[in-house]
């Protein structure tokens, strides 16, 4: 019972301890550590003192265990009573919790814990550098990298300088402000002409770290002040001579110093604004002469200096502009002559030119003269004098040469002869493709025509919305070259790229493409204009976007519209269309419209426009209602007629014709057979028609004549009314054959028609049915029944008063035998004579 209570107490103690963090002491034990914060890698000692009143140890055998961050570690018994210690020789955890356990019978309970944190000593300062500043007062600026911050413990830095080659040794210590990694050493901390040792020491509560030792000559690290350009001489062609000095505070320096001079042409109308730098070594009192410059060109010059080659450069001096002596232009010009369609005897010519690599303007201001020379005279006719690089003029058909001359105040250049190609409209290149290379360049690729007379290609490009529409850039390319990169372009600007093949005697037609180096969404979207408005559609128009605001090639338009009930619609339109009709709209409804314009670089949406569709007027209502009413009326009468004249419709649309193969003659009633039988009309080809009382056939002439003889001989007894010659009145025929005595039998007969029926062939034998219930006499061929025919109504039939068979000499027995053999379908009509 006592053991059970002890276990319960232990469990309660464990639960209570689980809700407690960073416990150093408890009612059962007390845990201590040599230090709560220890340096990284140092040794740590922890102890667990078990109290005598601990319920986990009373009257029990127990032992202790230690855990570090949830893992058991070896432990040892302390020197004192009830004290259990643990020693960790190399503590490398950033944070660790040491827990003390009391174990009994393999059940361990935690009774105390302590948390230990690891901190690092300061990092070693790195990249220590010092630069001498000779400005009054002179200072030595030193900077260093403090390294990675390893703990929250404050770190202090101290900068030490030691001046060597002095007696006694001079050592100085400078403490910068907290969190600063630089210090400006005053003049007392170093000597200009002696070496100085510099190092930095970092300290915190856990230790210190020292940087590498820096040994330097302060003057070699000095950054001099920018030099002063006192004047520039221009007495020699292509040369400039500079007189310079150091700053006022550094004029005491008299040694030879490295110098750099930077030149930038001021005028870049012809040449690109490229910079050039030349290096020299001079004493401050010596002049610097620079040659190899362009004649008559103004240059912007700057100078900088340093103490020695390993020293840092000073800043650039102030700019000075000077002009080299002027000379006459030299070299040739690259030309491109285009002839437009002739107008009478003259035609318009456009001449473009640019300097070649050998051309030198030799002055700031250059003008050009364009002259024409005819066939018979060497006198030149000046047509253009300009400072631009293009000219348009009229050229006569007799002109064979155009001369271009550059001139300045010093003289003229040798003329550049431009050949005139009269033959135009020759074959162009078969293929041209433009690809963007960057935001400032386009790559043009083309294919060579299938001819060997190509001498060169002219690649021409011009901005379609630039400030100077006459400015054209071009390049003359070799006949074997089929690609070129046009540079110096601007993004979002359209350029027209054209390739002209040059033949031996003329110029081919151009192949042109409009391209962009880079595209983006248009700056604006066109404004929608409303056209015709009806109840069901709205007509829309819009203008073309100005070329400067397109920012790319328009790929298409898209119109969005929405009604009052938020029903939306979208219509895509091609880029060549600026007109659309919105169809299938609701009348008298307000729609909100807006237009979106797209390029390959993006899309932009214009302002919305509200439009209201028209309402339907009275005239339109009449045009819609009247046809609808007429149609409904005709439909009603048609349906009504079908219900009223149901039998009549059934008679003409789907007549019911009995199938003799699946029925017998007893089932053929007058009402069933005649009700749905349409009136018979005489046709060219007679057809066997089965009525309820008569079977109509046409006899051949031979049989018909035979039948006539029998009638004349009195073989057709007849009583009552005469036989009707017509075959369309079935009710009249039924009266002729009524008999009260034979009400259960179905009278029928075969009637032979004369007239048109005589022309059709029929089977030779004829069977006639009398009023008797006895079967008909058999034929010579009793194997198959003969069809019945209606006899032709002739004058010799007047004496016939009843129906009979043709052969009177046949006995009744034979007649009955013939009935079943020849007429198997008439078995249903059998009546026994005994009855």
Q: Would you write up a description of this structure?
A:
With 835 residues, this protein is mainly beta. It folds into 7 domains: 2-119, Immunoglobulin-like, CATH 2.60.40.10; 126-221, Immunoglobulins (Immunoglobulin-like, Sandwich), CATH 2.60.40; 228-323, Sandwich (Immunoglobulin-like), CATH 2.60.40.10; 333-420, Sandwich (Immunoglobulin-like); 424-515, Immunoglobulin-like (Sandwich); 529-612, Immunoglobulins (Immunoglobulin-like), CATH 2.60.40; 660-829, no CATH class. It is 11% helix and 38% strand. It has 7 helices and 52 strands. The strands form 14 sheets. It has a 5-stranded mixed sheet, with helices on one face. Strands 12, 13, 15, 16 and 17 form a 5-stranded antiparallel sheet that branches. Strands 27, 28, 30, 31 and 32 form a 5-stranded antiparallel sheet that branches. A hairpin with a 3-residue loop joins strand 50 (689-690) and strand 51 (694-698). It starts with a helix and ends in a 13-residue tail after the last helix. 22% of the residues are buried. Residues 1-25, 680-699, 701-760, 766-770 and 776-819 have low confidence and may be disordered. Its main location: membrane. This is Fibronectin type-III domain-containing protein. It is found in: Membrane. Residues 428-523, 524-616 form the Fibronectin type-III domain. One of its GO terms (cellular component) is plasma membrane.
What descriptive keywords fit this protein?
single chain; 835 residues; mainly beta; Immunoglobulin-like; 7 domains; 5-stranded antiparallel β-sheet; 11% helix; disordered N terminus; Fibronectin type-III domain-containing protein; membrane
């Amino acid at each position: 019972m006592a053991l059970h209570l002890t276990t319960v107490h232990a469990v309660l103690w464990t639960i209570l301890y689980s809700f407690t963090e960073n416990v150093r002491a408890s009612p059962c034990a007390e845990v201590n550590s040599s230090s709560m914060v220890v340096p990284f890698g140092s040794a740590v000692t922890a102890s667990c003192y078990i109290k005598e009143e601990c319920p986990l140890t009373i009257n029990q055998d127990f032992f202790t265990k230690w855990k570090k961050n949830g893992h058991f570690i070896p432990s040892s018994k302390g020197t004192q009573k009830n004290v259990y210690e643990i020693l960790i020789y190399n503590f490398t955890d950033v944070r660790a919790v040491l827990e003390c356990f009391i174990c009994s019978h393999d059940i361990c309970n935690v009774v105390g814990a302590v948390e230990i944190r690891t901190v690092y000593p300061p990092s070693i300062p790195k990249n220590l550098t010092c630069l001498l500043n000779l400005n009054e007062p002179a200072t030595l600026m030193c900077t260093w990298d403090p390294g990675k911050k390893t703990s929250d413990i404050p770190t202090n830095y101290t900068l030490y300088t030691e001046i060597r080659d002095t007696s006694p040794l001079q050592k100085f210590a400078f403490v910068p402000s907290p969190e600063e990694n630089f210090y400006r050493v005053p003049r007392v901390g170093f000597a200009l002409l002696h070496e100085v040792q510099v190092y930095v020491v970092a300290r915190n509560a856990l230790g210190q770290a020292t940087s590498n030792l820096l040994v330097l000559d302060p003057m070699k690290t000095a950054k001099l002040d920018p030099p002063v350009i006192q004047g520039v001489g221009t007495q020699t062609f292509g040369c400039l001579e500079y007189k310079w000095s150091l700053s006022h505070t550094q004029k005491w320096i008299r040694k030879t110093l490295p110098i750099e001079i930077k030149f930038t042409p001021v005028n870049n109308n012809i040449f690109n604004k490229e910079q050039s730098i030349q290096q020299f070594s001079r004493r401050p009192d010596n002049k610097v002469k620079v040659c190899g410059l362009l004649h008559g060109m103004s240059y912007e010059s700057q100078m900088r200096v340093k103490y020695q080659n390993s020293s840092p450069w000073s800043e650039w001096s102030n700019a000075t502009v000077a002009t080299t002596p002027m000379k006459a232009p030299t070299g040739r010009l690259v030309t491109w002559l285009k002839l437009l369609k002739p107008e009478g005897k003259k035609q318009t010519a456009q001449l473009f030119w640019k300097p070649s690599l050998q051309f030198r303007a030799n002055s700031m201001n250059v003008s050009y003269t364009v002259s024409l020379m005819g066939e018979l005279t060497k006198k030149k006719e000046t047509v253009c004098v300009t400072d631009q690089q293009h000219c348009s003029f009229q050229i006569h058909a007799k002109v064979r040469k155009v001369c271009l001359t550059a001139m300045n105040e010093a003289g003229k250049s040798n003329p550049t002869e431009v050949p005139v190609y009269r033959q135009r409209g020759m074959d162009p290149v078969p293929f041209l493709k433009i690809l963007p290379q960057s935001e400032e360049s386009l790559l043009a690729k083309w294919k060579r025509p299938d001819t060997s007379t190509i001498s060169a290609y002219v690649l021409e490009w011009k901005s379609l919305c630039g400030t100077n529409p006459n400015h054209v850039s071009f390049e003359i390319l070799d006949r074997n070259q089929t690609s070129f990169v046009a540079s110096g372009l601007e993004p979002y600007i359209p350029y027209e790229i054209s390739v002209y093949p040059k033949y031996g005697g003329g110029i081919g037609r151009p192949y042109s493409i409009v391209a962009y180096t880079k595209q983006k969404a248009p700056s604006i979207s066109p404004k929608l204009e409303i056209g015709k408005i009806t109840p069901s559609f709205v007509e829309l128009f819009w203008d073309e976007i100005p070329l400067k605001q397109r920012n790319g090639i328009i790929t298409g338009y898209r119109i969005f519209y929405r009604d009052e009930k938020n029903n939306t619609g979208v219509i895509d339109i091609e880029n060549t269309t600026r007109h659309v009709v919105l169809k299938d709209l609701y009348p008298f409804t307000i729609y909100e419209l807006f237009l979106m314009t797209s390029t390959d670089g993006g899309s932009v949406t214009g302002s919305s426009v509200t439009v209201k569709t028209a309402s339907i007027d009275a005239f339109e209502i009449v045009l819609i209602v009247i046809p609808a009413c007429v149609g409904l009326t005709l439909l009603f009468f048609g349906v009504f007629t079908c219900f009223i004249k149901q039998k009549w419709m059934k008679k003409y649309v789907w007549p019911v014709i009995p199938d003799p193969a699946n029925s017998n003659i007893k089932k053929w009633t007058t009402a069933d057979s005649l009700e749905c039988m349409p009136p018979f009309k005489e046709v060219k080809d007679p057809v066997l028609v089965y009525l309820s009382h008569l079977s109509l056939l046409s006899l051949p002439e031979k049989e018909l004549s035979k039948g006539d003889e029998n009638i004349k001989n009195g073989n057709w007894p007849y009583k009552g009314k005469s036989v009707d010659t017509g075959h369309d009145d079935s009710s009249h025929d039924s009266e002729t054959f009524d008999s009260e005595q034979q009400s259960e039998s179905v009278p029928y007969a075969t009637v032979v028609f004369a007239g048109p029926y005589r022309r059709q062939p029929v089977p030779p034998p004829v069977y006639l049915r009398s009023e008797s219930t006895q079967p008909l006499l058999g034929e010579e061929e009793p194997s198959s029944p003969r069809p019945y025919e209606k006899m032709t109504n002739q004058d010799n039939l007047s004496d016939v008063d009843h129906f009979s068979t043709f052969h009177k000499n046949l006995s009744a027995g034979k007649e009955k035998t013939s009935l079943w053999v020849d007429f198997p379908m008439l078995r249903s009509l059998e009546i026994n004579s005994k009855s």
